[in-house]
Amino acid sequence: MELTREQLTRHSILWPMRDDLHAIVPRLMARWIFAAANAGYIDDLYSKYFHKALCPVGSAGKQCELPCHPVYGTSNVQGKCVCSSPKRTGDDCSIEVEEEVNGIPETLKIVAYVMLAVNVGVICICVVWLYRHRWTAQIRFSEPFFLLLVLLGCLISSFTIIPLSQDDGASEKGVLGCTFLVYQ
Question: Fewer Cβ in 10 A, N or C end of the chain?
Answer without folding.
Answer: C
